[in-house]
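Sample log: Ribosomal RNA small subunit methyltransferase A.
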Amino acid sequence: MGENFYAKKSLGQNFLKSKEIAAKIVDTALISTSDIVLEAGPGKGILTAELLAVAREVIAVELDPRLVMYLKLKFSKEIESGKLKLIEGDILEFDPGSQNLQKGGYKLVANLPYYITGKFLRRFLSETTQPSMMALMLQQEVAKRIVGRGGKESMLSISVKVFSKPSISFNVPRGAFSPAPSIDSSIILIDEIDDKRLGQKNTREIFFQIIKQAFGHKRKQLAGNLAPLYGSKENAEKALVKASIAPTGRAEDISISQWIKMAKSSTLEKGEFPVTEQESSDHT
């Protein structure tokens, strides 16, 4: 089977074609001979080959059955030796535990279809066994939003930063892909992954309810945005002051530590506002 696949637009496929970029991703992620690497969406395997040259083991999850067949032929020796495990499936449904991956015991590298970014981050930061770090190819504008463009936060940046420390490593021009996308990309490192900052599950649910409501209307002041959660604007103002947040402030200017303080203080007052599973699931 040749490499002349047509990219499926429905899967958001843009194949990385630059070996130099692939090697730089491996270097940036500090992949070593002791690492187990989970690769999401290996595509034609250009990054897979660079990972296999360094890592102890690579587990690659690919949704497209055409590419799975191609990769089986391309990396037959590595598969036979056990250095590469190739799994056909959806990375959003993949359970790291099924491959005996432990919390913090593997690194995650991915060239993601842009349309699954939010679900992917939520999945591997808060819903399943967490990696020690992630090196992700993302749309450049999305990468900037995650790290906090111009010092301003977004619901996406807060949702990532509460579990980790994100940083942009380097930019990737659209010409490094085939077919070339209409926008440039960036490699973002998500490091220091930890789910302990929010503590108990109830605090996590309240945290995400608060930021979802707070970012609901960017031009409104916080007390007005949060009033529906607290029953009145006055109650919202009291909760904000308790967390050392100005009621007249804007959501984009509030730090992670302040949001965490507000969520934790809210859990101390039973019945302050309801928590529903549906609302708390929409993190990013």
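Observation: The longest strand covers residues 165-172.
Observation: The first helix runs from residue 19 to 28.
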